From TrEMBL, chain A:
GO terms for molecular function: transmembrane transporter activity. The chain crosses the membrane at residues 16-35, 68-88, 100-121, 128-149, 161-183, 204-223, 250-280, 292-314, 320-339. The keyword Transmembrane applies. Keywords: Cell membrane, Membrane, Transmembrane, Transmembrane helix, Transport. Pfam families: FecCD. InterPro entries: ABC_BtuC-like, ABC_transptr_permease_BtuC. The keyword Cell membrane applies. SUPFAM superfamilies: ABC transporter involved in vitamin B12 uptake, BtuC (SSF81345). One of its GO terms (biological process) is siderophore-iron import into cell. This is Iron ABC transporter permease.
TrEMBL record, chain B:
This is Ferrichrome ABC transporter permease. One of its GO terms (molecular function) is transmembrane transporter activity. The lineage of its organism: Bacteria, Bacillati, Bacillota, Bacilli, Bacillales. The chain crosses the membrane at residues 28-49, 83-103, 115-136, 142-161, 173-195, 201-217, 264-287, 299-324, 330-348. It is found in: Cell membrane. Keywords: Cell membrane, Membrane, Transmembrane, Transmembrane helix, Transport. Its main location: membrane. Pfam families: FecCD. Residues 1-24 are annotated as: Disordered. Residues 1-10 have a biased composition (Polar residues). GO terms for cellular component: plasma membrane.
Length: 343, 356
């Protein structure tokens, strides 16, 4: 996976701190900008007044009930998906690994589609049930893939995990196609928008549902960064260095799946963040997961926040699902980096 | 990258598990598959021609093929509808599986499939635009646009992948493919959301052989045939390449040239298939895995056997698509997954040759 040998670790970590600080500054800047933008225009002055208790009722409603929860959830989803992708790429040693590859998106998508197929269209848009369905679908799929990939004699091989994931995802997509044919166009449209990755209609309840996952699992994988560094070196080396392969893999994988499932449940499949977040981070700070993981999370958060801010302010008539904007701005930049790279 | 995975993984596998370190072929199994497969394929083709919304007895099929009578309705149906459909299935199935086998062999990445080259996403993007702005376009023109889109997708993937100073490595190609696919799919999704045509696109993505005419078969045939022959000519070199770049150049092979040839083959085969039947993506991934499990990792056998298996699977799935729900056909892509996924999972579970 194109990882240069380890070295200059001290320099790297210094550089990573600077990059981290720059990213945090950028996130704060976009955060402030994002509060001003949207269907209801608010000047920076109005935003500040409203934040500190001023402003009229309408401004308060827009800012506290509509914009802030959305901004916060964009940050959480981005961080969760990118961190999950970084762990998966490290564990599988496959640069194409991302949360979607383990069938997480497919599983939640199928659950959403089943829900859409059997419930009236009016309950779809506002229902709190959509994320719950998605979480259940993603979780069940992850358990299924994991139990298929696990062998008593050999433990858990990352390659078999990825291949099982692809197989299950293909099966689920097929089932989704069969259901899609039967959905009414209106229902299909609402499912389609959700699948494209949309976080409109977020309330503080959604934020509260996602927050614990991020708060528990991101620190856990950061704590396990050293183990991930060892696992990347290959099974034999990792065993020689005293890693408990199965236990470590299971813990990290469960964390990655949990992060992806919770994030996808809250915001649909913004899966591209999980692929490019870690790649961009690797270009910035190198392959050491101690730096790679936090920078990935920050990059992911920034990317989704920018994507969502653009998605809800470019069009006057409606909004573009966040996942689409993220891919449209993220992919060209990623391709540019790919073309520019020397080695 | 997968090279590292397979070699380091091999050492943790307990003894007694079948291991393939050298490109061992199993010619006997391969020949059995080719002969048995050909026989089954002929049967499946005959069956495919005889079933459908009107069931036509096999005797009539025979007569239509060899003693054609233009005044007979059944003969007309067979000649004009069923036969091109069945033949297109063979071309598409063989093409997709062979292109998957060539890609996996060249890149040594077990999850490489033709979709990664941006073909499906490119075709999807152009079709979304066509559905949105020219909704009444004829099917034949649609296919041309689809092929154009596949070409644009692949062109972007290769163009951007090869811009880099380090050249076009398999890794860079795969990443470039993933990013271009994400971009083009996002654009297609954006158009689909705005114009509310997501369901139409889903139908196309599901893939299907209905509506195939001689025109498509005639356009596809020379290209697909030439590319299949090209794949067979390259097969020995691909076996060597699948051992790693160093081994390959050590044996005097010109890796870049082989990759170029292999890539051309993949583009033609997958592009033709995508433009004719939509994105039946799983086939190109699945079949080479099954075949490597059965015949070993010598691509001189993997490539022809993949072609045979792919053709057989798609013809059978197409029969199923028409039998299960004659009024509203079940998407072929869905049926292929339903047949193929359990077997694929079983293979991964057994962990045989070429899977890891």
């Amino acid at each position: 996976m194109n990882m240069p040998p380890y070295g200059h670790l001290a320099q790297r970590s210094k550089k990573a701190i600077w990059i981290g600080l720059i990213l945090i500054a950028a996130i704060i800047a976009v955060f402030l900008l994002s509060m001003n933008l949207g269907a209801v225009r608010m000047t920076p002055q109005e935003v500040i007044q409203t934040l500190f208790g001023g402003g009229d009722a309408r401004q308060q409603l827009v800012l506290f009930k509509l914009r802030l929860p959305r901004i916060v959830i964009a940050l959480l989803i981005g961080a969760g998906l990118a961190a999950s992708g970084a762990v998966m790429q490290g564990l599988t040693r496959n640069p194409l690994a991302e949360p979607g590859i383990l069938g997480i998106n497919a599983g939640s998508g199928l659950a959403i589609m089943l829900y859409a197929a059997y419930f009236p269209v009016a309950t779809l848009g506002t229902a709190f049930m959509m994320p719950l369905c998605a979480l259940a679908g993603a979780g069940l799929t992850a358990v299924l893939i994991y139990s298929l990939a696990f062998k008593k004699s050999e433990g858990l091989s990352p390659t078999s995990l990825v291949l099982n994931g692809i197989g299950i995802a293909a099966g689920i997509s097929a089932a989704m196609i069969v259901i899609a044919v039967r959905l009414t166009p209106e229902k299909y449209q609402s499912v389609y928008i959700w699948l494209a990755g949309s976080i409109s209609g977020t309330t503080w309840n959604y934020v509260l549902a996602l927050l614990p996952w991020i708060l528990v699992l991101v620190p856990y994988i950061l704590y396990k960064a050293r183990v991930l560094n060892v696992l990347v070196l290959g099974d034999k080396t990792a065993l020689g260095l005293g890693a408990n392969l199965d236990k470590d893999r299971f813990g990290l994988l469960a964390a990655a799946v949990g992060l992806a499932a919770a994030s996808v449940a809250s915001g649909g499949a913004i899966s591209f963040v999980g692929l490019i977040g870690p790649h961009l981070a690797r270009r910035l700070v190198g392959p050491n997961h101690k730096q790679l993981l936090p920078i990935s999370a920050l990059l992911g958060a920034l990317l989704v926040l920018v994507g969502d801010t653009i998605g809800r302010s470019v069009m006057h008539t409606g909004e573009v699902p966040t996942g689409i904007v993220v891919a449209i701005i993220g992919a060209p930049y990623f391709l540019y980096l790919l073309a520019k790279a020397k080695a | 990258m997968m090279e590292a995975t397979s070699s380091s993984y091999a050492e943790t596998v307990p003894e007694g598990t079948p291991q393939e370190n050298k490109p061992k072929g199993r010619p006997l199994a391969a020949v059995t598959i080719l002969i048995g497969g050909a026989a089954l394929l002929v049967l499946a083709l005959l069956f495919s021609i005889s079933v459908g919304s009107i069931s036509i007895p096999l005797g009539t099929v025979w007569q239509a093929l060899f003693h054609f009578n233009p005044d007979n309705m059944d003969h007309q149906v067979i000649r004009e509808v069923r036969l091109p459909r069945a033949l297109a299935g063979v071309l598409v199935g063989a093409g997709l599986s062979v292109s998957g086998a060539v890609m996996q062999g060249m890149t040594r990445n077990p999850i490489a499939d033709p979709g990664l080259l941006g073909l499906n996403a490119g075709a999807g993007f152009v079709l979304a635009a066509v559905f949105a702005f020219y909704p009444n376009m004829s099917y034949t023109t649609l296919i041309l646009y689809s092929f154009l889109g596949a070409g644009i997708g692949a062109g972007l993937v290769f163009g951007i992948g090869s811009l880099s100073k380090a050249g076009l490595t398999p890794m860079r190609l795969a990443l470039s493919g993933a990013a271009v696919s994400a971009l083009l799919s996002a654009l297609a999704e954006g158009i689909a959301v705005y114009f509310k045509i997501g369901q139409d696109l889903a139908f196309w993505y599901a893939g299907g052989l209905s509506g195939i005419h001689w025109t498509q078969v005639n356009i596809m045939f020379p290209w697909v045939a030439a590319a299949l022959i090209g794949a067979l000519c390259l097969s020995r070199s691909i076996t060597v390449l699948s051992l790693g770049d160093e081994v390959s150049s050590g044996l005097g092979q010109r890796n870049g040239l082989i990759r170029l040839g292999g890539t051309l083959v993949v583009l033609v085969l997958a592009g033709a298939a995508v433009s004719a039947v939509g994105a039946i993506g799983f086939l190109g991934l699945l079949i080479p895995h099954i075949v490597r499990y059965l015949v070993g990792v010598d691509y001189r056998w993997v490539i022809p056997c993949s072609g045979m298996f792919g053709a057989l699977l798609i013809v059978v799935a197409d029969i199923g698509a028409r039998i299960i729900n004659p009024l509203q056909e079940v998407p072929v892509g869905g049926l292929i997954a339903i047949i193929g996924v359990p077997y694929f999972l079983y293979l991964v579970r057994k962990g045989g040759r070429g899977i890891r």
